[in-house]
Write a structure and sequence with these properties.
This protein is α+β, with helices and mostly antiparallel strands. The chain has 8 helices and 17 strands.
């Protein structure tokens, strides 16, 4: 499908309803889930736009499971998403970066057949300097959708292939939500004057190749030899002038992946001597981003296995991530497999 901008004024709620109409078996539960989630995003967007004026910059006194000091905006985003999603009766459990274990639905609320995994605010190191931030999310069906009990760890630890929807929100020059249910990638842009996300790109497909790459080269001396050879290769001029590649790096995974999604190229967060498994989390960062990229025609791998085929062993499991245009990732794999 070709990338297309739509001249119609289609809100995200209307689009979700139209997608539901394509599935006669749909009960409307998932539609309500997404409605509540986008409401939470609106609240987060509002506070981010006012950061610096609303005492939401800086650190809390809390330390998360990863040993990181939690920033105020991180904590706010976490609480808003949880409070918006815990009572609608369609979720059985949640998991995210800021919680040590499973996030159960309060006893007083009914339990549903979906699981939510999310990173409430990606790019924490950029919060206080007004650089692009993001939210990453994914929805699964619980293993037994007929149950109305608390979700289990097994319901959460599913491979990315089992996602029923995933996406991310980018808080940049405008706020955009990139979203897929496994039937193509759609992009919605937030219009604050009317308080709505409007469909701006439908069926987005990424370029098959581009000579741009994104990686933190400050860790070059910690990488293994094969990966360093690849980086050296793409930085070396070639007779056909397709190399050297151009480096583009923001330091917020959502922002770097969003650039790759639109322009092509490759984003890389490899393991290194200090962090052999990388630093990105498989369940609520790598899986949703990889689901989006694959739906747009790209590829995502940990260097050996496609990301979406990895079965998580823990909520906070980490993974190397190489993600982007298929030809770029294939080129990298030739070096890693040499």
């Amino acid at each position: 499908m070709e990338n297309s901008t739509t001249p119609k004024l289609i809100t995200i709620d209307r689009h979700i309803n139209e997608e539901q109409d394509l599935h006669p078996e749909a009960t409307g539960e998932f539609t309500f889930l997404l409605h509540d989630f986008t409401f939470a995003i609106r609240l987060i967007e509002r506070e981010i736009r006012r950061a610096g004026l609303n005492d939401i910059l800086g650190l809390t006194e809390n330390i998360n499971i990863h040993g990181e000091t939690v920033k105020k905006l991180d904590q706010f985003a976490f609480e808003v998403i949880y409070r918006a999603m815990d009572h609608n009766g369609n979720l059985c459990v949640m998991a995210c970066e800021e919680a040590n274990g499973l996030m159960k639905i309060p006893e007083k609320y009914p339990k549903g057949k979906y699981v939510l995994v999310f990173d409430p605010l990606d790019g924490s190191s950029n919060i206080d300097v007004n650089i692009t931030l993001g939210t990453i999310f994914g929805f699964y069906k619980r293993l037994d959708p007929t149950l109305r009990t608390d979700g289990t760890i097994e319901d959460v630890l599913q491979p990315g292939r089992k996602l029923v929807a995933a996406g991310y929100v980018l808080y940049g020059s405008s706020t955009v939500m990139v979203y897929t249910t496994g039937h193509g990638v759609n992009v919605f842009t937030y219009d604050p004057t009317v308080g709505e996300f409007l469909l701006t790109k439908k069926g987005l497909k990424m370029p098959e190749w581009n000579n741009q790459y994104s990686v933190n080269e400050g860790y070059y001396h910690k990488w293994d030899e094969k990966f360093r050879k690849y980086i050296d290769f793409i930085k070396t001029p070639s007779p056909d002038k397709k190399r050297p590649y151009s480096l583009r790096y923001v330091g917020t995974a959502v922002a770097d992946v969003h650039r790759v999604l639109n322009y092509g190229g490759i984003f890389m967060y490899p393991g290194d001597k200090s962090h052999p498994q990388g630093k990105l989390r498989l369940l609520y960062e790598a899986n949703p981003l990889s689901f989006v990229i694959e739906q747009a025609g790209g590829r995502a791998t940990d260097g050996q296995t496609d990301i979406l085929d990895i079965v998580p062993s823990s909520i906070h499991q980490k993974t190397p991530l190489f993600i982007g245009s298929k030809r770029n990732v294939d080129e990298l794999m030739e070096f890693l497999n040499s």
